[in-house]
């Protein structure tokens, strides 16, 4: 096996793919994909020649990852790893295959590319010098978790389901107060992109009246943050 190439893909707008990502997609022998159907769409859009595709996603990665590595090593393949959108390993499959590659002394090459939470952080206008990305907002022990944020000074970032956004905002508002600043970034880089900034009370009121759709990034300002110009 010649190496594992971690290939970021656009989070929405297909034009955001990098030239190096396209070059790598054309060079690899096989692609390990979160969803082969989505990967085929991207390859077809950019007229990348047909590749061997293998399914590697959160539900099967522990079961198939060693078999995929054995196959790639047997054929001395150059392997590309990609998810449906964004950078593999960031709230998407990627951590495990990179770990296995390291254990097998296989070179790992990570290409830079889009990640939704960083786009949202910059667009939010909230402090970006010190922040925490927590993946998806936790579903268990929520009260204790939110109370731990009461004195937190860093900007916190989560991915959230549009179906749960209103209840999550309600919880944050109840535990942290109406006036904590926050931001909801939705459908980033897509046609219906929205970045809405305001207090927890304002955001809760808006999304209660206008139920959100699409992919959501939720950002919370630190406890002492205040808007200043």
Which helices and strands, and how do they pair?
Blueprint: E1 3-6, H1 19-27, E2 30-33, H2 36-45, E3 52-55, H3 61-75, E4 78-82, H4 95-103, E5 108-110, H5 116-124, E6 131-136, H6 142-147, E7 155-160, H7 165-176, E8 181-186, E9 194-199, H8 200-209, E10 216-220
Helix pairs in contact: 3-4, 7-8
Task: Explain this structure.
- With 229 residues, this protein is an alpha/beta fold.
- It folds into two domains: 3-110, Cobalt-precorrin-4 Transmethylase, domain 1; 116-220, Methyltransferase, Cobalt-precorrin-4 Transmethylase, Domain 2, CATH 3.30.950.
- It has helices at residues 19-27, 36-45, 61-75, 95-103, 116-124, 142-147, 165-176, 200-209, and strands spanning 3-6, 30-33, 52-55, 78-82, 108-110, 131-136, 155-160, 181-186, 194-199, 216-220.
- Helix 3 (61-75) crosses helix 4 (95-103) and helix 7 packs antiparallel against helix 8.
- The mean pLDDT is 96.
